[in-house]
Amino acid sequence: MNVITKKIVLFIFTILFMQTISAQQFWESQYVKVKGDGKLIYQPDEQGNIIPDFSSVGYHQNLKPIPNVPVKFTLFATGDNDQQKIQQAIDELSKVPTDASGIRGAILLKKGEYKIPGSIRITASGIVLRGEGEETLLIATGKGQRKTIIVTGTGKVNEVPNSRIKITDQYVPVGRKSFNVASSKGLKIGDKIVVFRPGTTKWIQDLKMDQIAEKSGLVQWKAEDYNLEFERVITAIKGNTITIDNPIVMAMETQYGGGEIYRYTFEGRIAEVGIENLSLQSEYNGDTDENHGWDAIYFNRIENSWISGVTSKYFGYSCVNLGGLSKQITVKDSKCLAPKSQIIGGRRYSFNNDGQLNLFMNCFASEGRHDYVTGAKVAGPNVFYNCKSENAKADIGPHHRWAVGTLFDNVVTDGEINIQDRGDWGTGHGWAGVNQVLWNCTANKVAIQNPYVSGKNYAIGLKATLYDGRLKGRPLGVVEGQNKNGLNPSSLYLKQVEESKKDKL
């Protein structure tokens, strides 16, 4: 064998060796695989349910970038009536007509300390409140629990009369974007609809949420309190089959009342509002003081808006709190630091989401209790991506009473992530969530349980110690690749976004 031949053979063996090592380093979930062409393929379970597509959450469902809004007012901190000056600029800008994109303009707060004894309110669309980074500091001065920045419209979801239509499929599985209705008459592409999933007595009974261990103040679940309303848009109609923009994240089951759709309006909901590059701090009197600023930023009755580059310190409850009527909000590159309160229930929910189709990404929290958390009956999909928690005082995950369809993707904590039956905690938290997905997450301990009916919970590529959770005897959730490196794709959310954007080109 000559020298050239030896080099060729060595090269071939090197390539084969590297391919072998590569194959050993990477693995795929049996539920979500990457095909040869790079596209994802989803493996359905025995009922046809798949892990949902979470790509279309956040500002305009990733279809347009967050805009760089031009400045219309520039303010300087003087310590004299700072709150009033900011509010006056907001009120003046609210009178300006929006442009074709729904934008009015930005208010730039130059570097300095702005004293805020009460709350700043934005109640009109198209307004951006922008600082110059952490040196633009809003200080919640004085006493009293309050929200420092409140962004909210008015009104609620209103059903269009005589528009309710029955879903005729006996079972619409999780992940599906199309289903059959009794009649598509009167519907058109672009219609905003609610996909309605009723709460029923049989469903409550099968979940055993009418059997929570009794204690003083406990409230057993009641069917009428558990109707779920998922906001969607019709993207296609063929006969009596309709297709929607975001997937079903809780199965529609005839045995539990099936499902319906109806058209809706929401007069008063605002949009295109941004809070950017600000630092907010609350004055406080001792580490357990609770008579001071509570939420740094609160959004509700709002859609297609964003919070970016915000840092909060010393608030008792949250950096960002999204209310139940917030939709398609992106919260990114933000920090919740050093909260001041007692370390007990109802405090330190660093990034709280009660709305739907919302995205939290690249966020950081320290010393919180529930750092990345959803509340009761939260209608997904929602995503927490690439978020970190340090010195955690409690757990991350769905907090109580049946949050639906959340992806926790590359979330890292030195505390716990739990998806479980919380039993009689609070006034009867019960099953915290369903169709929750932990993808490539890292924690100290994790409890993951499947509810008795109506869905599963997944931990794929989890790096943590599993434990039974608060209550033993519950079904174990789906666990795959525990403490195993090399999950492909490393981020389900980013891969789904990449694929969705290619499909929409």
UniProtKB/TrEMBL annotation:
SUPFAM superfamilies: Pectin lyase-like. This is Pectate lyase superfamily protein domain-containing protein. The lineage of its organism: Bacteria, Pseudomonadati, Bacteroidota, Sphingobacteriia, Sphingobacteriales.
